[in-house]
Amino acid sequence: MAIKQVFKLRKGLDIRLQGKAPEEKRQLAATDDYGLMPAAFVGVTPKVVVKEGETVKAGDALFVNKQYPDVKFASPVSGTVVAVERGERRKVLCVKVKADKDQQYVDFGKKDVSALDGAAVKAALLEAGLFGYIDQLPYAVSTNPETKPKAIFVSALRDKPLAGSFEFEVKGQEADFQTGLTALSKIAPVYLGVGEGSSLAEMKDVEVNAFVGKCPAGNVGVQVNHIAPVNKGEVVWTVDPTAVLFFGRLFNTGKVNLTRTVAVGGSEVSSPAYVDALVGTSLGVILEGQIKGENVRIVDGNPLTGKPSTKEGYLGAHTSEVTVIPEGNDADEMLGWILPRLKQFSTSRSYFSWLCGKKEYALDARIKGGERRMIMSGEYDKVIPMDIYPEYLVKAIITGDIDRQEALGIYEVSPEDFALAEFVDSSKLELQRIVREGLDILRKENE
To answer: Is 36 within 8 Å of 313 (Cβ atoms)?
Structure first.
């Protein structure tokens, strides 16, 4: 199908950082260290269904959603369960598996998706432990089998700082991507968001729309807002494009293959490149020999929405980038913020860097200021291309006014939609955390 409509967005902000991965791959060193982290599946309360010392195959369930036990989460590898790490109040942090040299897979059987209906597709994804990779709006959480979506959205446009290109990832896997899209189309209408001139515009069984503009044009929430806004009582599913590949591989091969192409970049990475890695791969293996400095921030994800991690961490289920930037807590600048500078990025004209055009910056992880009272300055509106009032919505969340939150469109947003607003916010508020907490409270109220 050709592109149905082109949406040109004027609001947004592109942050150009040093260390973007070129479209070339490097091989990872062999490893047997893998771990699946339940925290990557937002809204899921995990119940571990394996014990230490137990052997599993790739595709066997490691844990399930306690509230919906049919929703399983598959092991990325075959091997031996070596640890179930828990934190405070016995919260499950990670299920670790030592991989076998010769991988064994659960055979779920090849399926012709054209002959399946929506119920059969859903049942196949549940059986293979892949259904949990589907998220939903409202609440921006992993969905459950009881929801009935009015539409399914897939954004193949990644435009955050140092983001990996899905166009590069999908090369040679177009058949699996098409199969995954066709399978989802059996459940509800599928909307595929792409960039202008995308090679994916000819995908079948979906409505393809192009989004042109600055970041966050690739946010699936932005695309939902422009095509099929979510009202109270409605549900849309959102699926990462790599998860669509997982689904396609399942139907085409009968096996669970959680390999994804990850962009490894950042100003503190010596040789930025892409790597093919399984979900749950050790970050120490991915970053082996690549970190230039000592005082650095390792991010499981991109610098805007990713989670701080360490070399002992594992690749998240929805992670398309691993980035390394300076921590910045050892910086000692003469005159501090008063000093005019060219090497720091600013959305205002506080620094002379606005004269430097499309320069790339080596930004660090400092907040550069303390939290202060919220100023209604219109800063958020400039970088959020959605039909909402973001500043008023944030104030309603902070004050706990649920009725006002609903009126201001909280059902349409996810924390990542406020990532750029958090970056430009002169009040230094943790907007993504505030929105996440607001969504969690609203979800509990409506259950």
So the answer is: no
C-beta of residue 195 within 8 angstroms of C-beta of residue 214 = no
Can you tell me whether residue 35 is helix, strand or coil?
A: strand
Instruction: Give the residue-averaged pLDDT of 41-47.
Output: 97
Which residue, among 104, 62, 107, has the nearest Cα to 79 in the 3D structure? Answer: 104
How many angstroms separate the Cα of 204 from the Cα of each of 180, 181, 190?
A: 11, 8, 10
Residues in CB range of 300: below 8 A, 6 or more apart: 283, 306, 307, 308, 309, 313, 315, 316, 319, 322
What's residue 344's pLDDT?
78
Cα gap 220→66, rounded to integer Å: 27
DSSP characters over 272-303? -EEEEEETTBBHHHHTTTTB--SSEEEEEB-T
DSSP assignment, residue 64? E
72 φ/ψ angles, rounded to the nearest 5 degrees? -100, 165
182: left (phi over 0), alpha (psi -120 to 50) or beta: alpha
Q: Residue 355: its pLDDT value, please?
A: 67
Q: In the 8-state DSSP scheme, what is residue 361? A: B
Sheet with 236-239, strands from edge to edge, namely 3-8, 207-212, 190-194, 151-155, 236-239, 134-137, 141-142
d(CA 245, CA 173): 8
The whole-number pLDDT of residue 338 equals 65
Phi–psi pair at 308, nearest 5 degrees: -60, 140
- Higher pLDDT residue, 352 or 392? 392
* Chain centre distance of CA 10: 23
Write out the two tokens for 318.
Answer: 């929805």
As a whole number of angstroms, the distance between CA 417 and CA 420 comes to 7
The arithmetic mean of pLDDT across residues 20-24, rounded, is 97
**Position 293 confidence tier, pLDDT thresholds 50, 70, 90:** confident
Which ranges in 146-295 belong to alpha helices (H)?
166-169, 174-185, 220-227, 241-253, 283-286
Q: Can you tell me the distance from the alpha carbon of 287 to that of 302, in angstroms, rounded to the nearest whole number?
A: 15
68: helix, strand or coil = coil
Average pLDDT over residues 144-155: 97
Rounded to the nearest integer, the mean pLDDT of the chain is 94
Reported as a single tens digit per residue, the pLDDT across 298-340 is: 999 999 999 999 999 999 999 999 999 999 877 766 666 666 6
What sign for the dihedral angle of Cα 348, 351, 352, 358?
Answer: negative
Strand, coil or helix: what is 345? Answer: coil
